[in-house]
Every structure is written in C-alpha cells, then in structure tokens.
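Example record used in the benchmark description.
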Amino acid sequence: MASITIRNLPDHAKENLRVLAAMQSMSLEAYTRRILEQESKNYSPKTQNIADMALELFGPKHGIELNLPDRNSLRQPPTFKNK
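Model output (structure tokens):
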C-alpha cells in the first residue's frame, strides 16, 4: 500500500475532518482514506488518438472548413521491365 503526506492543511480543515470521522466512529486516517478512495473511483481517464484530438480542436464544428485538392501523384510510377 502507498502512503501520502498532506502538508499545509489548514488546522480547521483537519479538525473538521476529525469531527466528521468521529461521527462515523472512524479514525481520522480511515475516514480520509475512504474519502480519497471514493473520489478516485470517479476518475476515468479520457484517451484519444491524435486524429480524434485534431477533429475535436479544429474540426468542422469550429466553423473552419478547408477545401483541399484531391491528392494525386505527379510522378510516373516506376517500371521494372528490362530494356
């Protein structure tokens, strides 16, 4: 199990947590652990690939639409025939 140290916690916050813990018949440590566990369960990281991010940031819903020309090759494809 990991440990955590919380520095610069205002005295009134610690006292309020201690009272709330006592009202639940819990130690301050157990009560705080429960709060942290509950809050961390609400977090779910959002993963996206770069193309989805680009559409979200610069896509059509932002009012910018570019008319790009079709891509084609200007070079002749290589031939591998003997001369």
